[in-house]
Amino acid sequence: MKHSLNEKYFVASVKNAMRILKLFTPRQYEFGISEMAEKLKLSKSTVHRYVKELVQEGFLVQNKSNSHYRLGFSNLALGGIVQLNKEIYTDAIPILTKLANRFHLPAHICVMEHNHVVYLLREMGDQPVKLITKSGRYNDLHCTAEGLVILAHKNKDIIDNVLTQSLKKYTKYTMTDPERLKQQILQIQYDQYAITKDMYAIGFVSFAVPIRDYTGEVVSSLALIGESKNADKHQYDEIKKELQSSAKKISELLGYYDN
To answer: Are 226 and 201 in contact (CB under 8 A)?
Structure first.
């Protein structure tokens, strides 16, 4: 589908505005126009135009003492929405903790955002384990059980959109062929369960099942993710059953009851 010049300009403007906001970190919370322009490889006049709009909307504020900019209070409002999403699952934390302690693997609740899976909550359990996830981190959908199990319950247009993107190959086991992924997604739809091993990182395995809200829609996934050596293959069936049972309880907390 062809886009008009105005549409392309709008999309580019939004992307550049987001790139500016992503520059700010706890270590560097202020930037001048010149520094932003240098880091983003944009002209100072272009950056100044975007910054002016972001200031007007409250996403940036200017430090009058040095003319640098820092994040504004509008970002806190968006952060509050993210925090609200986490609070929805607060009652599920004991369920996550029980899972993590039982199988000695970190337990997660994950959501899909755009074409990525985001790790919303994580409970470690009582055993020290090597980690490849953290709350707030996002990852690709195609190489993770926690992402695939959500994607499998989206409509065809969303699935096709993800599978037609450039799919990164993280390891030699990462599945990047769209047709093979479609077959895997169909199997996940049937099983209501996903497992990936060595697809994102060698030596790591992920087990995941869907979580539904009061409408019956799959809104998140429940996953156990950790080192393969900590997941005995003889436990795989037990892990599946316990994940499905736990996801049912979390879904009920969200108002879903399977009659």
So the answer is: no
* Phi (first) and psi of residue 69, to 5 degrees: -120, 150
Residues in CB range of 106: below 8 A, 6 or more apart: 100, 122, 123, 124, 125, 129, 131, 133, 224, 225, 226
User: Beta strand pairing status for 116-123 and 68-71?
Assistant: unpaired
List C-alpha distances in Å: 87 to 91, 92, 121, 129. Answer: 8, 10, 10, 26
Q: Residue type for 119, please?
A: Y
Give every residue of the chain whose pLDDT is below 70, as ranges: 1-10, 26, 73-87, 127-136, 259
Helix (H) or strand (E) holding 179: helix 178-191
Q: Is 211 left (phi over 0), alpha (psi -120 to 50) or beta?
A: beta
Residues present in the chain in total = 259
SS3 of residue 219 by DSSP = strand
The count of other CB atoms within 10 Å of the CB of residue 168 is 11
Quote the CA–CA distance of 227 and 202 in Å, as a whole number: 9
Both structure tokens of 163:
């599978």
- β-bridge mates for residue 113, sequence order: 116
Residue of 80, 129, 157, 123 lying closest to 228 (CA atoms): 129
